[in-house]
Structure formats: structure tokens, C-alpha cells
Design brief:
Length: about 130
């Protein structure tokens, strides 16, 4: 009786875990489709909206930040298509470093601190996804 109950619990656990994994995979696929279906301008606008919501940006700050984000989105797209990815990634890194001072001038000190925290969180998420894919 106990063995049957244990097997039933194990089977139920596996079914639930599979469902969660499938749902997560479907959500990742939806995000990828959203990314490819949108223009760089739409993706940049969405990113600025997300940043604005998290940092409480003014309309003026959003307007100043949008061209910087758009430039970075376009550069990332070029990297995906580049044959020399190492050079393209270096170029993106240099762009990010040069934009940091501009962004610092747009945001308040508190917002900039939050912005840096968001960047670190995003890096951690990417590293976590990379570890899970291997």
C-alpha cells in the first residue's frame, strides 16, 4: 500500500514538474517570437516603458533615453547577424560604456543606482539561462 502511494506521489510530481517546464518553455518561445515580430523601434520603446515603470521616469527623461536604447537595440541586432561576433560584442560593450555617462546625466542619482541594479539583475538572469542550457 505504501509503495503504491509513493509511486502515485512520484508520478504526480513528475507530471506537475513536466507541466511547469512546458509552460516555461512556451513562455520563452512567446518572448522570442515577440522579439522577432517587432521592429527595433518597437523593442526600444517597450524597453523604455519597462525602465520608466521601474524607475519612475518623467516624459522628458523617456524622450532623452529612447534614442540611446534604440541605438543599443540596433547594435544587438547587428551582432546577431555579424560573422565576427567577438568584434561585434566588443563594439556593443564600448557603446554601453559610452552611453553610461549619457544615461547618468539623464537620470537622478537614485534612478541611476536603480538602473545599475536592474542591469546587474539582467546579467544574472542571462548567466542563469546560460547555465541551465548546458
Amino acid at each position: 500500500m505504501k509503495i503504491t502511494k509513493g509511486i502515485s506521489v512520484l508520478a504526480l510530481s513528475l507530471i506537475l514538474a513536466g507541466g511547469v517546464a512546458f509552460q516555461s518553455s512556451a513562455q520563452d518561445t512567446d518572448r522570442q517570437m515577440d522579439r522577432t515580430d517587432k521592429t527595433p523601434e518597437e523593442r526600444a520603446s517597450n524597453q523604455v516603458k519597462q525602465i520608466s515603470k521601474k524607475l519612475g521616469l518623467t516624459a522628458d527623461q523617456q524622450a532623452q533615453l529612447t534614442p540611446l536604447v534604440l541605438e543599443r537595440v540596433k547594435k544587438r541586432e547587428a551582432i546577431r547577424q555579424a560573422s565576427n561576433k567577438r568584434a561585434a560584442l566588443k563594439e556593443l560593450s564600448e557603446l554601453a560604456n559610452s552611453q553610461e555617462e549619457k544615461i547618468k546625466g539623464i537620470l537622478t542619482p537614485e534612478q541611476f543606482t536603480q538602473f545599475k541594479d536592474l542591469q546587474e539583475d539582467a546579467k544574472d538572469n542571462v548567466k542563469g539561462k546560460m547555465r541551465r542550457s548546458f
